Amino acid sequence: MNKKKVLIITYYWPPAGGPGVQRWLKFVKYLPDFGIEPIVFIPENPNYPLQDTSLNQDVPTEVKIIKQPINEPYKWASLFFKKTSKTISKGIISDKKKQSLVEKMMLFIRGNCFIPDARVGWVKPSIKTLMGIIKKEGIETVITTGPPHSLHLIGLGLKKELKIKWIADFRDPWTTIGYHKQLKLTGYAQKKHKQLENRVLNTADDIIVTSFVTKNEFLNITNKPVTVITNGYDNEKRVDFEMDSKFTLAHIGSLLSKRNPEVLWQVLADLLREHTGFAKDFQLNLVGTVSEEVFKSLELIGLSNYVNNVGYVSHEESIVFQKKSQLLLLIEINSEETKCIIPGKLFEYMVSNRPIIAVGPKGSDVEKIIKETNTGVYFNYEDYEAIKRYILKGYDLYKNNALISHPIGLQKYHRKSLAGTLYKLL
């Protein structure tokens, strides 16, 4: 029996690093178990701000991968403004008052000259290439995943030209994502983004989102079916590790300029001052890209000597940090726009057996999942006393070798279970 062929159009693919890669890498791994043959379409010469070659080993050897050349504006910009171009492409945008003239200029160009994003030049040549491939391979279903949301315009073009089923997967929202306001959009650009978002949401046959907040937002724009398929966790190969001897709080992933929980830094500074034993045992591990603004906040409050700045590591190495740390930090920007953000690392955190301290806006989807799975505690930015009590409680458990999480109901977030939900749409 021939498997049903599905074309997946994605920008991020190994050796790209970061959580955006793993979503479709894992779907491609498990869809064949449900009688689906995935064919993956990616750029031939992408400009990935982060790379993780360890993810190459997760690409199934039998999967067909088709590549199309792409012109990368970030690559050209890096020839003249290397540091600024690299930080913007990673999503790190300085506070408005601290932006240099170069950063302001690049943000304006990014927001107004490349709509919806800097990969829009890949759309037309990709449509031209894929029309022949879809006919040749007998493909009936196409999936586009964004960001970059310009990839949805490839789906839009293919839907217009061919009789295909098109599913649009939104790993993040489009016009309501937090950094959108920082792109210095003109009125024309804002209107154009809205128009394109509306066309995609009302032309695709099915829409997938990663959060319940985004689903509700999109249901106000379209009558098309919207399905929530979160990110998840996979079975990782066994890793050797020893639990940290210190009372480590670890944040794994990017800490952007506005993802800067000063209430947490204040709690830690006060605990260090008030408890001699805590000061001797405590260490803050920052694993991943961290903005200068965060480092300055830590320095001003007196935490610099307790910070272990690890920097970016491979996915394999990040798993080790998750398992050996005493407590895991999950931080989100305190804003209405970030209620829908469910970081991919949350699900790996949940199976690490380490308790999670999450700090973010009220009413977020992260809060819902952490409570449902009993994997930690979620705090708002106003919860100074509650955060302090929880860390002290964790410290007491650590001293008694009893600090561990007690999760429930995690199986539905396994990557294979999520692939089964996707299969039902296919």
From TrEMBL:
GO molecular function, one term: glycosyltransferase activity
Top-level taxon of origin: Bacteria
Pfam families: Glyco_trans_1_4, Glyco_transf_4
UniProtKB keywords: Transferase
Limits of the Glycosyltransferase subfamily 4-like N-terminal domain: 115-236
InterPro entries: Glyco_trans_4-like_N (IPR028098)
Protein name per UniProt: Glycosyltransferase family 4 protein
